[in-house]
Amino acid sequence: MSATRTKFYLDKQNAKWMGVCAGIADYTGVDLTLVRVGMVMLTVFTQGAMLIAYVATGLIAPKKPIGLYENEEDEKFWQRTRSNPKRTTAEVRSKLRDIDRRLANMETFYTSRNTQLADEIERLR
Fold first, then answer.
1. What is the pLDDT of residues 54-78, one digit of tens each?
2. Most buried of 35, 38, 43, 86, CB within 10 angstroms?
C-alpha cells in the first residue's frame, strides 16, 4: 500500500464541506461532532482566522485513499498509534508476551509425561 496510515487526510466520505473536520476526527479518533463544535467555537473566538486555516487545510491536504483501513479494528489501532505510539508499542509487546507464555504452557503440557494425553492420542490413531 502506497498510502501511509500515520498521515493526515481529508475525509470526503464523512465531509459536510471540505472534509477537514472529518479528517481531524479520523486522525485523532475524537467524535466528529465534537471536532465540528470545536471548530465553530475556535472560528468565533479567533474572529474568523480559523476559517482561513480551515480553507487552506482543505485546499492543501490530500484526500483519504479508498481502502486505507481494512476494517474498523484496523482504523482504531492506527488512531491509537497516532495519538500515543509508546502505549501502542507496549500493548503489542504485552500481547506478544501473552501469546509466547501460552505457547510455552502448551509446549510444556504436550512434552510432559501426561499419560491421559498420550492415551487420548493413541485412541485417535
1. 999 999 999 988 878 778 888 777 8
2. 35
Cα–Cα dist 64/70, whole Å: 14
AA letter at 60: I
Q: Tell me how long the chain is.
A: 125
CB–CB of 58/11 below 8 Å?
no
Quote the pTM value: 0.61
DSSP code of residue 1: -
Q: Which three cell numbers stand for residue 63?
A: 484526500
Nearest Cα residue to 52 out of 35, 39, 62: 39
Closest alpha carbon to 98 in 110, 108, 88, 90: 90
Q: What pLDDT, in 10s, does the model give residues 34-50?
A: 999 999 999 999 998 99
Grid cell digits, residue 37 = 463544535
Could you give phi then psi for residue 50, rounded to 5 degrees?
-65, -30
